[in-house]
Design a protein that fits this description.
By secondary structure, the chain is an alpha/beta fold. The chain is built from 6 helices and 9 strands; from the N terminus they run H-E-E-H-H-E-H-E-E-E-H-E-E-E-H. The protein has a single domain, classed as Rossmann fold (3-Layer(aba) Sandwich). Bound molecules: zinc ion. The site of zinc ion (ZN) has 8 residues, from helix 6.
């Protein structure tokens, strides 16, 4: 199954090689641009159905992920779980639910991500859900490229891959004067 997911990322050109500034602030020679996969509804359906299948017995009532990357993942996964899909976004740097979105107290919540690197945005979403007293049943992501990350909830990824990341102060690629790209927005 992992090979199938990797194959989809490869054939849509979603695995970029170079020198990248990740949203976490870390540098890496590999970047997963999930938007290039998710532009194909068939692939989005295929992948999110797998996520949904894993959590199908968790009685998920709402799926939530951080904008922009996880909006489609949340929506498509929610479709298979017959749940709502909402997303968090930053307002003056603070992650929150906007647009009138809300989570009911005790409601079963599945958190989703496209790619997990440091887990920072996932942790911010966890805090948002906790602030509503939502009941987090698990975390699902398409690609987990984190190192030794653990949450208080079950984490399920379609593709677990170990990719080197560098602290910006000690980056092998910076030392070679390779120009850095911030790929998220372009
Ligand atoms: Zn660097």
């Amino acid at each position: 199954m992992k090979d199938e997911v990797l194959e989809i990322y490869e054939k849509t050109g979603a695995i970029k090689k170079g020198h990248f500034l990740l949203s976490s602030g870390l540098h890496s020679d590999i970047y997963f641009q999930s938007a290039l996969v998710l532009q194909y509804p068939n692939y989005a359906e295929f992948l999110c159905k797998k996520l949904a299948n894993f959590f199908k017995d968790y009685k998920v009532s709402v799926v939530v992920g951080p904008a922009l990357g996880a909006i489609l993942v949340a929506y498509e996964t929610a479709r298979f779980l017959n749940a709502r899909a909402v997303f968090t976004e930053r307002e003056v740097g603070i992650m929150k639910l906007r647009r009138g979105f809300a989570i009911e107290k005790g409601e079963n919540v599945l958190i989703v991500e496209d790619v997990i690197t440091t887990g920072l945005s996932t942790k911010e979403v966890i805090e948002v859900v906790r602030s509503y007293d939502g009941n987090i049943v698990g975390i699902g992501c398409l690609v987990d490229r984190s190192e030794n990350l653990s949450f208080d909830y079950p984490l399920y990824s379609l593709l677990k891959i170990n990719v080197k990341t560098y602290n910006p102060y000690n980056c092998e690629l910076c030392k070679q004067n390779i120009p850095i790209e911030k790929p998220g927005s372009r």
